[in-house]
Amino acid sequence: MVTLRLMNSSEFQEYFNLATENYAKEKVIAGNWNEEESIIKAKTEYEKLLPKGKDTEKNYLYIISQKNQPIGIVWLEKKSNENGFIRDVRVFEKYQGLGYGKEAMKQIEMVGKELGLKKIGLHVFGHNRIARGLYEKLGYQTTNVMMIKDI
User: Fold this and answer.
1) Is the entire prediction scored with pTM above 0.90?
2) Cβ(140)–Cβ(123) below 8 Å
3) Distances, alpha carbon 135 to alpha carbons 58, 70, 75, 140, 141, in Å
4) What are the structural domain ranges in the chain?
5) Tens digit of each residue's pLDDT (9 = 90 or more) over 65-113
6) CA dist., res. 29 & res. 125, Å (int)
7) CA separation for the pair 100, 95 (Å, rounded)
8) How far apart are CA 103 and CA 96, in angstroms?
9) Structure confidence by residue, pLDDT tens digits, 89-100
10) Superfamily in which the 2-137 domain is placed by CATH
11) Boundaries of each N-acetyltransferase domain copy (predicted)?
């Protein structure tokens, strides 16, 4: 069973650096940004979303733990009284494929209910088939699909 606990300041800084780097790579893979601008754009987006870091109002940044060992992160934003959005969820590579992502998603849904949320949304890059499969198994429904073709 995994547990969630709020990040401390040093964990947040570590997360911010890793997350912006990963987000930049994902945006390049998806064809949204070129590599040269990607890190600057990623940091700019994260700074807008989290102007006060881990203490940004209506944002909940958690460490996912298994037996007190950090195995990932999850970030939930309360967008309105009834709607939340999972901004990021990540199980560290060596812990992937063991069911921890599914458990963490169930835990963050319980947090959402405690916050009074009725719905939680998320974004997943189209090329991330493993994550898409997990979210579908958990009952998340596709609401939008964007497509692109090189010509």
Assistant:
1) no
2) no
3) 23, 22, 16, 5, 8
4) 2-137
5) 999 999 999 999 999 999 999 999 999 999 998 999 999 999 999 999 9
6) 9
7) 7
8) 12
9) 999 999 998 999
10) Gcn5-related N-acetyltransferase (GNAT) (3.40.630.30)
11) 2-151
